[in-house]
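// run 5 | inverse folding | seed 20
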């Protein structure tokens, strides 16, 4: 079945069907290749002749056997096209033609939604990088909570987004967070507990039997009088994962308004003032490592500790008579004062 759409129209996405998808229907295989688009949307594109298999259009039920060249004419989501571009400043750590590494400030919502239809990171990306309007969620491949600061990666092409989503699914993206937790944590550990919606409070997440598998590793950096500075490393990326997991083991993050301990539990006035000044969960995405979608090189970035969190850590140190040095994440390879820490083959 030939299409009357010119081949030049198919410059948005091209991919060879992987061998492990052999025998699948075209719509199902395409859903595996482009997981950021709904299957119904992909099926409509196939029916509209916007997907070519070896230069020919096909039906959703057409079987693929591996090795075919798929050409897809990407159509923007009407819901996302409606979002306005807004001149919101971005702290760009690194950028090239393929990816953007951002240091998100606390207080910035990542994606428009209920109660936050403007003033988000997505609105800012549409202003500074207009080309991302053609990509699902403006190239955003993972999120940080509104009040969590730190590093995020954004894709500038659909190919890059697909590559990064696959890395996240394969758990090869390394995400390290700096956090202050309530209580004294005696040793490093791992929380392997499924997370889903809280059974009674639908705004919250919780460890529940039928939740999605969730794994968080934590490493003790420094202990204070009633708090512990830790580094958390994610294997999975569930909503509120670190906050839920640390609360689950009775060490919720300091100043967490949802999962934390009420302020009256803190007795030291200087510490309480620092927590009040923080006014958010003590969580910062400090380090990010991934394979660059275009070059295949592993790249790592590290973001400085934001002032509010640095002030809290300094106050906790002073409370036990320690020095005011910057937190050390015990990684000699990252012990450099630069934005791009290293590039490794």
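// decoded
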């Amino acid at each position: 079945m030939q299409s009357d759409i010119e081949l030049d129209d198919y410059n948005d996405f091209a991919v060879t069907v992987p061998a492990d998808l052999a025998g699948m229907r075209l719509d199902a295989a395409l859903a595996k290749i482009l997981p950021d688009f709904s299957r119904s949307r992909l099926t409509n594109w196939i029916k509209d002749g916007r997907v070519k298999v070896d230069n020919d259009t096909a039906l959703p039920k057409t079987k693929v056997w591996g090795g075919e060249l798929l050409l897809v004419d990407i159509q923007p989501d009407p819901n996302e096209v409606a979002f306005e571009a807004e001149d919101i400043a971005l702290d760009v750590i690194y950028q090239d033609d393929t990816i953007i590494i951002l240091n998100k400030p606390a207080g910035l919502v990542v994606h428009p939604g209920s109660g936050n239809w403007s003033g988000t990171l997505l609105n800012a990306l549409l202003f500074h990088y207009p080309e991302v309007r053609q990509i699902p969620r403006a190239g955003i491949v993972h999120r940080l909570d509104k009040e969590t600061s730190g590093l995020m990666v954004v894709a500038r092409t659909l190919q890059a987004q697909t590559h990064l989503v696959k890395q996240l699914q394969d758990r090869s993206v390394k995400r390290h967070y700096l956090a202050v937790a309530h209580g004294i944590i005696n040793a490093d550990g791992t929380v392997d507990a499924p997370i889903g919606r809280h059974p009674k409070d639908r705004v919250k997440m919780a460890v529940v039997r039928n939740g999605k598998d969730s794994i968080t590793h934590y490493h003790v950096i420094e202990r204070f009088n009633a708090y512990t500075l830790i580094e958390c490393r994610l294997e999975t990326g569930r909503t509120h994962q670190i906050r839920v997991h640390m609360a689950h083991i009775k060490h919720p993050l300091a100043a967490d308004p949802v999962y934390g301990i009420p302020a009256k539990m803190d007795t030291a006035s200087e510490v309480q003032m620092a927590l009040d000044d923080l006014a958010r969960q003590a969580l910062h995405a400090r380090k990010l490592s991934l394979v660059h979608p275009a070059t295949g090189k592993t790249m790592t970035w590290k973001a400085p500790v934001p002032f509010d969190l640095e002030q809290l850590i300094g106050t906790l140190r002073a409370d036990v008579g320690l020095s005011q040095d910057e937190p050390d994440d015990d990684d000699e390879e990252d012990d450099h004062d630069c934005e791009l820490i290293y590039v490794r083959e």
